[in-house]
Write a structure and sequence with these properties.
Structural class: alpha+beta
Radius of gyration: 21 Å
Keywords: Hydrolase
Strand content: 15-25%
GO molecular function: hydrolase activity
InterPro entries: Beta-lactam-related, Beta-lactam/transpept-like, Diverse_Enzym_Activities
Shape: globular
Distance between the termini: 32 Å
Largest sheet: 8 strands, antiparallel
Number of helices: 14
Oligomer: single chain
EC number: 3.-.-.-
Order of helices and strands: HEEEEHEEHHHHHHEEHEHHHEEHEEEH
Protein name: Serine hydrolase domain-containing protein
């Protein structure tokens, strides 16, 4: 499914020349080899005002980025899983303050890292249980093995959990494995990026009685008309031809290829071409720009399915729930800067809070962003990103496939150029 412009930029308050300059700016990323290609979608008042593509989805095959290109969105899966959990919350299936051990007994007695090495860690009992809201806000103490910033993430790698999940392990077993590892901090006392949303996905499974894949498909994807969103792509099918290749910044191969040029990285990229053992609610989805636009449009409409969805006019969430999710839920109402534990994340920290599945702009000045207070967003490890700005009635999503997302200042530059193109 492809996406196209629906309204002239000037009709919704954009300067068309400045949007063209935005495209030219990011085209230079392709021209000098930093990115293989990219796709950008900007909407205002629910209508697409700008949709552009540039470069190649597969450099080696010479295939261009097209409107229906498939992208690994990695951690942009997290907001979708968070919406799924809150749909169950709206049904009264759990409270945000409930201990997750009520459904996942392996988390009944968590231990917290205190001191020592990965070879001999010393732990203390958690002062309080991991609760549902801890998973939604990344304040659970769970972490990622690939961060390489603490003894605890070294223990994750030792247990087989690095940038990819342990082979042959499903979500239920992974949760049992993570529960046996120490937490990075006492629940509710810090903010640490990790497998919290994957555990939340397992909670969705147990509470709903469906697999995470089935729940997302029947309760979110089908109502929204997200027909191009999957956990994997059949290598023998037509969709494999639409899948963008995955790249990393590489060393200079020769005089014609500069250091940092996008270099194909199939060891991880090829994982998208086989069915996963674990449906990762924290980073497993592949989709088109059109499909993710349907999801962000639902958020901008505060839970309502847009007219093109199969359940047009129906609600996935109430407006009050969407507004509740996109407020700052960090303890004491502080910035991420006060609670973050370092390591990789899809956000800056000053002036930024965190809600139930989204980073939230509290104050644009310390955040050094022109976004409105109350804007919310997230991104993926391969440099994809989206945000929703309710005050400006704006949604933006950018797609490319470059690991890691910290390689280039794509996200702050997007904000600079897009807000500078608004004229009203």
């Amino acid at each position: 499914m492809s996406i196209e412009r629906e309204v002239a930029p000037g009709q919704v308050g954009f300067d068309a020349k400045r949007l063209a300059a935005l495209d030219a700016h990011f085209a230079r990323y392709v021209e000098d080899g930093r990115l293989a290609g990219w796709q950008l979608v900007i909407s205002r008042d629910g209508r697409v005002a700008h949709a552009s593509t540039c470069g190649r989805r597969d450099l080696e095959a010479g295939l261009p980025v097209e409107p229906d290109t498939l992208w690994r969105v990695y951690s942009m899966t997290k907001p979708i899983t968070s919406v799924a959990a809150m749909m169950l919350w709206e049904e009264g299936r759990f409270e945000l303050t409930d201990p997750i051990s009520r459904w996942l007994p392996e988390f009944a007695a968590p231990q917290v890292y205190d001191r020592g090495s990965a070879g001999q860690p010393y732990t203390v009992p958690a002062a309080e249980p991991i609760r549902v809201w801890h998973l939604l806000t990344h304040t659970s103490g769970l972490t990622y093995g690939f961060l390489q910033t603490s003894v605890v993430d070294a223990l994750y790698r030792k247990a087989g959990y690095d940038i990819m999940s342990k082979p042959g392990v499903d979500l239920a077993q992974a949760c049992r494995d993570w529960a046996a590892l120490p937490l990075l901090f006492q629940p509710g006392t810090g903010w640490g990026y990790g497998v919290s949303t994957d555990v939340l996905g397992r909670l969705v499974e147990v509470v709903s009685g469906q697999s995470l894949g089935d729940f997302l498909r029947t309760r979110i994807f089908e109502p929204l008309g997200m027909t191009d969103t999957h956990w994997w792509v059949d290598p023998a099918g037509d969709d494999a031809k639409r899948l963008a290749a995955l790249y990393v910044p590489g060393p200079a191969a020769n005089a014609a290829v500069q250091a940092g040029a996008a270099t194909r990285f199939d060891p991880i990229g090829q994982h998208a071409l086989r069915e996963p053992d674990l449906h990762s609610g924290g980073g497993g989805l592949i989709c088109t720009a059109a499909d993710y636009h349907r999801f962000t449009s639902m958020l901008l409409r505060e839970g309502t399915v847009a007219s093109e969805g199969t359940a047009a006019g129906e609600r996935l969430l109430s407006s009050r729930t969407v507004r509740f999710m996109t407020r700052n839920h960090l303890p004491g109402g502080v910035d991420l800067d006060r609670l973050q534990t370092g390591g990789f994340a899809e956000t800056t920290f000053e002036g930024i809070g965190f809600g139930l599945g989204f980073a939230v702009v509290r104050d644009p000045v310390p955040a050094r962003t022109p976004s409105s207070p109350g804007s919310y967003y997230w991104g993926g490890a391969a440099s994809t990103a989206f945000w929703v700005d309710p005050a400006e009635r704006l949604t933006v999503a950018f797609y490319t496939q470059l690991l890691p997302s910290s390689t280039h200042p794509i996200r702050p530059q997007l904000r600079q150029l897009i807000y500078s193109a608004l004229t009203d």
